[in-house]
Amino acid sequence: MSEKIYEVPAAWAKKAHLTDAKYKKMYAASIKDPDKFWAEQGKRIDWFKPYSKVRNVSYKPGKVSIKWYEDGTTNVSYNCVDRHLATRAKQTAIIWEGDDPSESKKISYGQLYTEVCKFANVLKANGVKKGDRVTIYMPMIPEATYAMLACARIGAVHSVVFGGFSPDSIANRIEDATSEMVITADEGLRGGRKVPLKANVDAAAEKAPVKTVIVVKRTGGDVAMKDGRDVWYHEEAAKVSGHCPPAEMKAEDPLFILYTSGSTGKPKGVLHTTGGYLVYVAMTHQYVFDYHDGEIYWCTADVGWVTGHSYIVYGPLANGATTLMFEGIPTYPTISRFWDVVDKHKVNTFYTAPTAIRSLMGAGEEPVKRTKRKSLRLLGSVGEPINPEAWEWYHRVVGDDRCPIVDTWWQTETGGIMITPLPGATRLKPGSATRPFFGVKPELVDAEGKVLEGAAEGNLVIAESWPGQMRTVYGDHKRFEETYFSAYPNKYFTGDGCRRDADGYYWITGRVDDVINVSGHRMGTAEVESALVSHPMVSEAAVVGYPHDIKGQGIYAYVTLMTGEKSSEALRKELVAHVRKEIGPIASPDLIQFAPGLPKTRSGKIMRRILRKIAEDEFSALGDTSTLADPAVVDDLIANRQNKR
Ligand code: 6R9
């Protein structure tokens, strides 16, 4: 582990919202008297009716309940749009950069107001009411943001499904959310290639029928429109007014559901609510990115992930920022695309994932160095641990040794950033997410739940609640309690392992459950396994992660075939295609090993520890295998391993 320290640049210490002393003072206050601290912070958004209660939280087993600002009323779309009109109607809210570099546009807050109101009126005209769930399956175009804010405006609950998911995955999410409307586009465009979004929705709706599909025209490609179900957005929008009053929402009314992978079973619908979430994402966006008026801020995530929700849409817009939305990919039309966009739009803050950095690193410095990047002042990282080599490269090559890097640790469940450097305040150590954000009380615990003090390594839990915390698993509160509050009673369990060093800095070491992180995308090994065993020739499957130079982790699948079936290269390809169809391209196994048997205990439990070691090509350290029902299977697994280094 690198222990190199990067001091806060002098210019930063002067200009930033926070200094180290201020951070320490505010942090101490936030932990000492959370009610007072959050009562004050709650004022950063506008309320229709002010709150008198701040926090009402119980982590008690069987009685988990999380409420913030519960008697206040507000509206998220009002806060992200209307309240800026008096001062920022002409300021750019969204810079949209198309897949093709010749296509870009700027949307002012004034225009955003009209677009969001129109979209809200279209939803209403098509029967959407407060509390209804609306599925959004969109490319990275401004209409995705309009649709989200339009739902928030009328009190509908959006469920955004990432455009890379398959029809089956869409169908499962439509069913789980009991959603009767899908908003999509004819096609998406990424790296010059078309993505058949509407066709995927059609296939999903075969399995999970919906009443209405609203289709935004993006490419003009040929799509089928089903009579009585499908409508064109532009035709509907032409019929409605550009004003729509924001609904008065209670602080704890649901804002959105976002599905994420867990260690078991199907993806969970993470539910976030209105008031606390918005306070938290606005506050973290301001401090973590040291956002100042007039700056250009770019988060490269997709709105289909929580990072897109909190740090492309809600946080930045609540703060009246200019947020850049990019439709394309880092390598199209050239591998300099990110930096060309930075120069074109004079981007000040750039927030991306380590996997992107690592893949660009592979192409060397020249594609970066041929661009100027003079506007950049801050870099950010999110989604997975960033290895010190990638951190140093990001700092030196992309940031010209001038820009601090904020390595932000958080989760779909946490709503916003939890452990992070604060530029101006925090000395950086490459590879460390450094210190907790205000109000966040991280603890390290051992397997028995004993809290570890000082420099230590253990499982990361968060004691106490914070306003951006998820409130429940949609439709399954029991699963919520079991997943997050049962391993360590009275604490929120993150699922991550973590080390704390002698300076109190946190180093996330990765998941300790059966969740893997592929290119910053969360994937449950159980999901990939169930996709594999749904193939008629597969009898059993076990999936583990293994270290991958660019993706962080790759997907390694052990597959046992039905008696009489023969393994072949063709079958290997077929299984990869099968998983892509069942879940989506992000779940494609990188390596498949056909195995006559899996290592099981006598009680029939697959010993994943062994499979992980073999996938890592570290089979000399398999540990105790004496409890295996048939230790001989291990020899075969080793002999036929797919990741020989
Ligand atoms: C925001 C987001 C959450 C999981 C999380 C952890 C990993 C995210 C990280 C990080 C190390 C960071 N993770 N940020 N690990 N350093 N800065 O990514 O949400 O998709 O729910 O993933 O990602 O393992 O538990 P989500």
UniProtKB/TrEMBL annotation:
GO terms for biological process: acetyl-CoA biosynthetic process from acetate. It comes from the Bacteria. Residues 82-465 form the AMP-dependent synthetase/ligase domain. One of its GO terms (cellular component) is cytosol. Its cofactor is Mg(2+). Belongs to the ATP-dependent AMP-binding enzyme family. Catalyzes the conversion of acetate into acetyl-CoA (AcCoA), an essential intermediate at the junction of anabolic and catabolic pathways. AcsA undergoes a two-step reaction. In the first half reaction, AcsA combines acetate with ATP to form acetyl-adenylate (AcAMP) intermediate. In the second half reaction, it can then transfer the acetyl group from AcAMP to the sulfhydryl group of CoA, forming the product AcCoA. This is Acetyl-coenzyme A synthetase. It comes from Bosea caraganae. The gene is acs.
